Amino acid sequence: MAHRDREINMDSQEKVSFEDWIYLQKCFKYEKLRLSHDEIEKKDLLKKIEDLHREFYQNQLQMRTYQESLRTKKVLIDDTHAFFGDTFRYIEGFLLQIRQNPEIFSFITSSMKRGGEGADSCVESFTYSFFLDLVHPESTEAELLNAIKNLIRTEIKALKGHVSSLLHESYVLKNMLRHYLKRRNQRKYMKLVFKKGLRDIIHNQDTIKKMRLDPREIYNEIMRKEVNFARNSVPVNAKGKGGFFKRRESKQTEEEKIPFLVENISIEDAMHNEEVYRIVLERSFQIIDHCRTLLQGIYQNVDTMPFGLRWICQQMMSEIQEHCPDVSDTDKFTLLGNFLFTNWWIPAFFDPIKNGLLQNVIIQPSTLAYLKIIGTIFKNIFKNSFFEEFQYFKINEFIADENSKMEQFLKNIITFDENVYTRQKLRPTACSISENPYEGNNKTMHFYYFSKLSQPVISNSDILTKSKNHLEDEKKMKEFKIITFVVDLSDIKFLAKLVKEKEDVVTERGWHDFLRYAKTIRNSDELNTLYQPSYLRDKNISENDEIYCFFMKKDFGEYSADIENSYMNSIRKPKVNPNDSESMKMLIKVQDAIRNLLISLDMSIFFDPNKEWSLLDIIEFVIHFSYLFENKKAGTQDRVPLKLLAQFLATHMQEIPPDFKSNSYRKLYKGLLKEYEERYEFMRNLATRNKKLLLLSINFMEKHIIDLRQEVKMYETLKQKSFALDFIKRQKVQACLLTIKDGARPTTQVFPQTACPHSKLASVNEFVLGSKKNLKSFASIDDTHVNTIEEFYEKFMKLEQVSQSTEQEEDLYNVGGAFFDYLVIVKDIIKKDLQSEEDIEMAVEEIEKHITSSMFQHIFPKTASENDRKLYNRTLIHDWVKPEHLDIIPAHRNEAMWKFAIEALQNIDNYRAPADKLNCFVNCMSIIVNVLSLMSSGGGGVGTDDSLPIVIYVVLKAKPTRLYSNLNYISKFRHQSKMIGLKGFVFQQFQSAASFIEYLDQTSLTIPPEDYNKNISESKEKHHLSS
User: Fold this and answer.
1) Is 487 helix (H, G, I), strand (E, B) or coil?
2) Which residues form the VPS9 domain (predicted)?
């Protein structure tokens, strides 16, 4: 508005005043400052985008180190250009051609078909970074999937053997798929599918130890039992002098006979034994039950399978159909089964901890053998083959029954709902499959997200619901691309060597620049000038480390010039038209000179209340008093001196068209002002658009980094778990486990062996202190000393006082105290191996979980206690309670979302460790608090008065069968130091809720007595409760 007011006021004047020129100067200076600010902001955003990409790959390298369990350190170079020096542009051009040219990439992969030294690292780089798009979340994996598809097509065309050998013959394809299957979504899906079935297997490891299906071994066990039974049945009076030795001799003779019998008995003859047949049948049914549970998880979750996996499977089938039409369905399904089971799921079974399927468990060798049998059964199902051994007859029947289900499952994976396109009111735009892998199932979350946000197919209704600006933003964002990748230094050398060895083929295909780059890199490597060793020394990087180099190329499409160039250089200046007159050409030069003069000039020097300064007066003053301005502009060598600008204007001002000179250059002034206003709007929109694009990219990058940090944290946790499990298996923890009887109540105490009552040091100390006790009251060393963690919990859980204390709320026998004393001994030993207090606490935490999980059957009540049953019945007869009965205000009510809290609480019986059970309470409370925060209108926090009624309501609806047992178990075996803060508050909330429900009556609720009594009566009748 200020510009228009100034223009209106000017129209009423005949001449341009000094104030007008001052105003125009302020406009130009403001424009310069604003553009300078926008330029700094743009550079900062571009720098942040680059830094975020580096941070992403730094976290990714850390994650890859954890995945591969490598001892070699992966180092990301901060400044790749400085590291390579003069060879940087050749290396960058070489790698970009591989990245951007599908034909060159296909040539590289085919040349690496047989692998070789350095090939695996190269394939890993291709999979993890070469084809990622980190600024477009809807197509992050699109280019990677397209590269895999093209690779599948190339390999199928060149396939010489059976189609089922595709994944074995193609080294690059096999390894790219292997690395792809390690991604976060794939692991999460695998955990969803197999966690329950694997947990059931691991929890029955003791039973699985005896689960062998060899009939001869079973026959051997039966015969041994019969011999032992016969030996133990010998009458006592039969033992005469020397009878003991005779019996020993008889025992030895029998044991020699048993192996002889087993070696000569056949499997068929052993199976004719009724007891052997019964045991084989019983064990076969147990194996079948475990297989069925795992397979049920697969079948039921086909629609939640990550869409990238389904798309890869579909592409395999479509390419085979196109290039090998004679291949049978059985062979196709065998290929899919090899991909999903042989290459992915079955190997994950053998290391469920590393793959995130299980935690806090030590897998026994017998369990691994059992899982191997299950894996073989899965292979036989999708291959439609059977066991040859007779004892697997029942499992073979199961395989035959499951074959049709497996075939249907594999069909469902590659079957997409094509009708989704017919429902669109507009035809889809031309888009090749290789450019858009997301073309399928509307049942998946991935497809829904992609189809709604990034499909080129937009229905009329979509157009109506989207604003014009939103559609323009989507179009602009698609043009905004940033290509980044990280490669190992050895990968660069390997690829250059590979290309140089294939020089004839590369030359024949016309890739001359690509070959030139490869030769330059190879020659530099041979001359040891490929990189700067001084850079590694300055950064304290060892040449033995795996050195990774970061490359980044920005491609902003039609906006490249606007984003990469300076805003001052982007200012639209009037172009000189060759057809214009000389005076008009001079006008453009004069306008530019005036703009530069006004921006650099200090108008305060011209202040004179008695004089009206015109433009010519200002120019003449600058010429005569240039020294005043030279001092002020000292050090600015990049601009034309003001004296020269003024002299240019004084010389050429008369050459502009006459109408621009009238009324003190009124038209010239108006032209400059109008040009400024148009330029202001243009540059403001340009800066806003660029800022929006850059901020969107930063937002997407930060989301990727957050997800990756969680991945790294998960792998760090897995590493700590692995340390703890290895510690349990290998480390000696010497302790003394004593039962001391003080009166009628025995108590449990744990000491280090060096300070236990059996040790000489302890005896001397007690004697000196005058408190020496009679050591005859203690058990022998053999009965009390333990040397490993496994020995401790096997002896601890069998103590009489431990079994007696399971249902007691108070720790009368010091069972929990003894357990915590033992953990202190463990912690002191761990301190010798770990330095960080956080790592030490994490290791002790994992050991605590393992011990309590292993002892669970002995330290947790086998059946519900009397208090459990009483509380459960109270929840049944009060299942009619509504939020208003507990005075939960309407603004806090959301029963639909509370069901998630109910499910979290009901999940508590699926865990064994007290820490995990406590986390179930915490998760339940977290959901309650989050729902309260969403429902509350004020900005205040959530208090106990708000949350406790909802906790009571959730417990009533969850109807936990063993709440008191879980509370007592946590209280006894979870140290108080771990029960402070949030976890302690949550634990008290559920204790309060249990106590409230136990004594719940009409006075505790907001309900009339007659309604209360009526509801209670109906509930008792409904649940068949007498009281």
Assistant:
1) strand
2) 865-1006
